[in-house]
Design brief:
8 strands; alpha/beta; 3 domains; globular; 234 residues; 7 helices; 2,3-Dihydroxybiphenyl 1,2-Dioxygenase, domain 1; 22% strand
């Protein structure tokens, strides 16, 4: 049985209804401290791994190791995980480049819940990871090679600073291979801030009226006003 990690001092100072509340409790950002308040800047250093459950062990290993050609690096096998009703499992990792891995949990003796059935829906495909390549030739090699191996791959899709292809694995999970077309600059960060400020202002107003934002044009118009204010203050 895997041992539970002892609570840190921060954990001890936080009140939980149960020891597992961190997994289910809604996060109310109005109750949280901010960078501006405590001055502590946290930074991430790239992706270590992504992880998803699978109920198709052989198909998943075959797909990522033998069809995509990603080396199998490591497998953790465990009896449960802390609480009594947790199934035994295998947790295995494939090399995704630059120290990152693609990982899966295989929960022994379980069936796939209905919520994990693949859907033809933008809500379903929104949860995905985009794995990068460095050149157009590499992106084309991925598409042409996977199609020659019989996999259905999307057309090339260009969205501003990225060009991508998409396909699904045997579990129905979407996979994206992306080529970054340009560097992100300081002006992009300012543009992002104004775009999201416009959207958040409109969402607050809509929520207060019991309605929804209707379309992107409404956000663009509010953003245009914010851009004007920003440039006027320069």
């Amino acid at each position: 049985m895997t041992q539970e990690i002892p609570l840190t001092e921060s954990d001890r100072n936080r009140t939980y209804a149960t020891k597992r509340e961190y997994r289910t409790r809604d996060v109310d950002v109005s109750e949280l401290g901010t960078v501006a308040e405590d001055g502590v800047e946290l930074r991430m250093h790239g992706v270590d791994h992504t992880a998803r459950p699978t109920w198709k062990l052989r198909e998943t290993v075959t797909f990522y190791r033998d069809i995509l050609g990603l080396p199998l690096l490591h497998t953790i096998s465990a009896r449960g995980w802390g609480h009594p009703d947790h199934p035994d499992f295998l947790h295995f990792f494939f090399d995704a480049g630059k120290g990152a891995t693609i990982a899966f949990f295989y929960y022994i003796g379980t069936d796939r819940p209905e919520r994990y059935e693949p859907e033809d829906s933008h809500f379903y495909t929104a949860t995905h990871t985009a794995w990068g390549v460095e050149t157009r030739e590499q992106l084309e090699r991925w598409k042409e090679t996977l199609e020659s191996r019989g996999l259905v791959v999307s057309p090339y899709t260009r969205h501003e600073g990225l060009e991508s292809i998409y396909f699904r694995d045997p579990n129905g999970y979407p996979v994206e291979i992306s080529l970054r077309l340009r560097d992100v600059m300081e002006v992009d960060a300012q543009d992002a801030a104004l775009t999201l400020q416009a959207a958040m202002e409109l969402e607050d107003e809509a929520n207060a009226e019991g309605t929804k934002i209707g379309d992107i044009d409404t956000i663009w118009r509010r953003k245009a006003a914010l851009v004007g204010e920003f440039l006027g203050g320069k």
